[in-house]
Amino acid sequence: MLLGENWVDRAPQMDVRDPQDGRLIDRVPKATLLDVELALSVAWKARRIARALPTHERVQVLSLAAELIGGRQEMFARTIASEGIKTIREARKEAARCAATLRLCAEEARRLGGEIVNFDQRPGSEGRIGYWTREPVGVIVAITPFNDPLNLVAHKVGPAIAAGNAVIVKPHEQTPLSALGLAEVLREAGLPPGVLQVLTGDGTEIGPALVSDPRVRMVSFTGGVGTGQQIARLAGLKRLAMELGSNCPTLVMDDADLDLAVPSILSGAYWAAGQNCLHVQRVLVQDAVYAEVRSRLVEGARGYRVGDKLSEDTDMGPLVSEVSARRVETLVQEAVTAGATLLTGGTRDGAFFAPTLVENVAGDLRLYQEEVYGPVTVLERVDDYDEAVRRANSVSYGLQGAIFTGNVNLAFRAVRDLDCGAVIINDSTDYRVDGMPFGGVKDSGLGREGVQFTVREMSEVKLACFRVTPA
């Protein structure tokens, strides 16, 4: 792991295993509380180095790192696919996105500035002139998930560097190798030692010490609601940025272009085996087109090829563990026992779970209310737009929503009516570019990611006011 200014080995260690067959890929150190204290001490000192790094050097580091990742895309893709849950084709897209994310960070480093303030807007404030600028917050702890083990790390580390911060990354226990690879690239690109550290280990053991320390001025976390709530209780008075998942609804109106809607929904439902906060979990379809949408989705789901992640022919890989697959299996079985209709899928083989479609799911069931985090999508028949919106908003999450319609007025109404951080029109909820504001409402989190917005979250406004005395 990258601890202090050096790559450090430790005993004991943690196994990194391929979730599809359990084979050992690598071993990483299991950081201790002593390691946490060392990392915090180094970051506290390195924050001054990061702050003093000129803009052109931040730009150079981030730009060169993007270039290096682009040149090693296949290597990173194989790491992502081996330690995680993505197929090799999905992993290549993530590696390419990581390079693009870092390029965006370099651009935002150039733009980070301020504005002039007109103090004479109030009587008696004549003779004053000033401005505000943005300064780094200091030390940031970034805690990242398994589903995007490279690009989501870049979404936290890149903006932290662009804004002049020191950052400690705690990657997910099951997917630390991609984060370590990114750190190696950033060091190679010229990032000063100590500005970035990567601690591998058990989050339950070292996480509380990291997030509660007063030297840490911001925690950026992507993960589950329960862990997010625990971090909020422990963190104290510091900035929190949290993306806590969702239960995304996609509305299909009777005037929708089904040739556009169905492939988008299928991709959003089964990308990364549904282990994605933008996963299409509920599809609310107007009655007139419900039968056709259901038929097309069932046919598409049955055509998905599930298997070896490294095979070019595979469409969908496993869940992150057999435990996770059993949890998804339980949610589906509960719904079916309560009267839901299983249209396709519902079967498990170890950590693999078949692409699944379920209808007639009662609104109070866990499969309907919670984040399933697996390849399961619920179909609902609705009479009209108002019913669709009411059902879409009936859960405690609100990350992204989507609507397929040819009616521009209805699209604008959906933007207004859906309780979520983003509304996607004529695409599924599983749409994101790395420069857009990204985040949700309700239990989906706090703040906004997306490079431009993260850089602002990771900086503080400072005002300067000069009183100019008459000559």
Automatic annotation (TrEMBL):
<feature type="domain" description="Aldehyde dehydrogenase">
    <location>
        <begin position="7"/>
        <end position="462"/>
    </location>
</feature>
<keyword id="KW-0614">Plasmid</keyword>
<dbReference type="InterPro" id="IPR015590">
    <property type="entry name" value="Aldehyde_DH_dom"/>
</dbReference>
<dbReference type="InterPro" id="IPR016161">
    <property type="entry name" value="Ald_DH/histidinol_DH"/>
</dbReference>
<dbReference type="Pfam" id="PF00171">
    <property type="entry name" value="Aldedh"/>
</dbReference>
<dbReference type="InterPro" id="IPR016163">
    <property type="entry name" value="Ald_DH_C"/>
</dbReference>
<protein>
    <submittedName>
        <fullName>Aldehyde dehydrogenase</fullName>
    </submittedName>
</protein>
<comment type="similarity">
    <text>Belongs to the aldehyde dehydrogenase family.</text>
</comment>
<dbReference type="InterPro" id="IPR051020">
    <property type="entry name" value="ALDH-related_metabolic_enz"/>
</dbReference>
<dbReference type="InterPro" id="IPR016162">
    <property type="entry name" value="Ald_DH_N"/>
</dbReference>
<keyword id="KW-0560">Oxidoreductase</keyword>
